[in-house]
Design brief:
This protein is mainly alpha-helical. It has helices spanning 2-9, 23-29, 33-56.
Length: 83
């Protein structure tokens, strides 16, 4: 979607585009580690695409803002090993 948005908005006057990886919040709140990592990887891929696009378009400013809350994942407690 981001690549299509950049193609459609590209012009001589400039534009503003906000891209959000919104499902990461859902995955984090559900303690879905696999989903959280997948969402982070997808967002990382998008940021990489935008940065490469910006290198081709002089005068482009890219801001990346992390979520306003910290990611918290709970892991099940492991039994203490005794020797």
């Amino acid at each position: 979607m981001t690549s299509k948005a950049l193609d459609l908005l590209d012009n001589d006057k400039g534009f503003f585009l906000m891209v959000e990886g919104s499902n990461i919040d859902v995955c984090e709140s559900e303690q879905d580690m696999k989903g959280t990592i997948e969402q982070m990887m997808a967002f990382d891929h998008t940021v990489d695409y935008v940065l490469n696009w910006a290198q081709q378009h002089q005068g482009t400013l890219v801001l990346v803002q992390p979520t306003t809350k910290r990611a918290v994942c709970k892991f099940p407690t492991m039994p203490r090993l005794t020797t």
